[in-house]
Amino acid sequence: MKSLLIAAGIALMALSARADSEKHDGFGELTIDQVSDLIAKHGADVFDNNDQGTYAKGHVPTAKWVSFKDVKASDLPTDHSRNLVFYCANTH
User: Fold this and answer.
1) pTM for the whole thing?
2) In the chain, where the domains are located
3) String of b and e for 56-67 (b: at least 16 CB within 10 Å)?
4) Neighbour count for residue 73 (Cβ, 10 Å)
5) DSSP collapsed to 3 states, the chain
6) 46 pairs with which residues across the strands?
7) Long-range pairs for 64-71 at CB < 8 Å and ≥24 separation?
8) Tens digits of residue pLDDT in 15-59
């Protein structure tokens, strides 16, 4: 998994309903190791914002594809305390 993330040069952003005041409106950056730990501990829902072709070629384990331009409430978990991790090969 780490090599996939590194090779793609993926930018990681996280949103947490429990974010501390040091972060900007709940957004922050995570390292690859932090995301790997969150996935291993089932501590976050992960979303791939690349195009569908890129997602089909490979994505982070457990990641769900969502369009970065059209994320709907139905795409997100109903538990609003969950950590959400969005990633893509671009900086949107």
Assistant:
1) 0.70
2) 2-88
3) eeebbeebeebe
4) 6
5) CHHHHHHHCCEEEEEECCCCCCCECCEEECCHHHHHHHHHCCCEEEEECCCHHHHHHCCCCCCEECCCCCCCHHHCCCCCCCEEEEEECCCC
6) 85
7) 68/92, 71/47
8) 433 334 345 566 788 899 999 999 999 999 999 999 999 999 999
